[in-house]
Design brief:
The protein is α/β, with parallel strands linked by helices and 282 residues long. Helix content is 46%, strand content 17%. Strand 1 (19-23), helix 2 (31-42) and strand 2 form a beta-alpha-beta unit. The N and C termini lie far apart (47 Å).
Length: 282
């Protein structure tokens, strides 16, 4: 419990919470609104509930812009708060379940780009926006193809955990948030690994130089952590997502051996429901 919005915001800067209950005025003129604004801008997974008196309801209306999920009009009581929290908890459970599938749907979207499954600009942009790529779709991107030196010998003689575990280890290595570009490992074909690359934010460095700088970090980490020697085969840069889809023959036609549903940790019906939500039909 906090005495004002400043204290609450300071706590939220370093802590993640599911639900925040705040009086709309607190000790300042609009303390609750300040908290709601901070949560809206920095904590998209946190839900805000505001307490409001009739005289302050105009303030509450302003909070609509900050995606406040519920208003409780004073005077209130514990059963009312409990029912609201129970309802929000159910919504959070659904969102967390959907969030667990979203990375796979993003991978499928990138696979579709790579394989030419979607190419019309309006569809590329609409689906990309739905999946959180909106801020980087107009920036340069690339397809990186790499292999592992003496791949078959490495698998047979040095790596003891199987090909699937190696794929996972490499994906985790490339997927780290420590790089200035985002690497999305999306496909592996007979030892050729395909990675989609894009900028995380506007950079002053040339995109090609930036990829090479960050890729060198990955190569060093792969050697130090996994004892793997990565060899880059090619880096094909496009001016934006749409231009990327116009390039034919990056991979060619392949059949996928594994049913994507086999990799899910949620039931197939949930996966289909979320796929439908994002207009991605496989």
């Amino acid at each position: 419990m906090f005495g004002d919005g400043v204290e609450a915001i300071e706590y939220l800067k370093t802590n993640d919470v599911d639900i925040v209950l705040s009086d709309i005025k607190m000790n300042e003129m609009s303390g609750g609104l300040d908290v709601a604004k901070f949560i809206y801008e920095t904590k998209p997974m946190t839900k805000t509930v505001l307490l409001s008196g009739y005289k302050e309801f105009d303030y509450a209306r302003k909070a609509i812009d900050y995606k406040v999920v519920h208003y409780l009009l004073k005077p209130t009581n514990f059963p009312m708060v409990h029912e609201v929290f129970k309802e929000i908890t159910k919504e959070l459970d659904i969102e967390k379940e959907e969030a667990s599938v979203l990375p796979m749907i993003r991978d499928q979207y990138l696979n579709d780009l790579l394989m030419g499954g979607i190419y019309r600009q309006e569809i590329v942009e609409k689906r990309g926006q739905m999946l959180g790529f909106e801020g980087i779709m107009k920036r340069e991107c690339a397809i990186l193809i790499y292999t592992i030196k003496d791949f078959d010998d490495f698998i047979a003689d040095e790596w003891r955990y199987g090909r699937e575990q190696l794929n996972t280890a490499l994906a985790n290595l490339f997927g780290s948030d420590d790089y200035r570009v985002k690497f999305h490992p999306i496909y592996n074909d007979a030892g050729n690994f395909y990675v989609f690359v894009h900028c995380i934010k506007e950079e002053h460095s040339a995109f090609n130089d930036l990829i090479n700088q960050e890729l060198m970090k990955v190569i060093i980490n792969a050697k130090n952590i996994l004892n793997v020697d990565i060899e880059v085969k090619s880096i094909d840069i496009s001016t934006d997502f749409t231009s990327f889809t116009q390039k034919q023959g990056l991979i060619g036609k392949h059949s996928f051996d594994d049913d994507i549903n086999d990799k899910l940790e949620v039931d197939v019906e949930t996966y289909r429901r979320i796929s439908k939500m994002y207009k991605l039909f496989f």
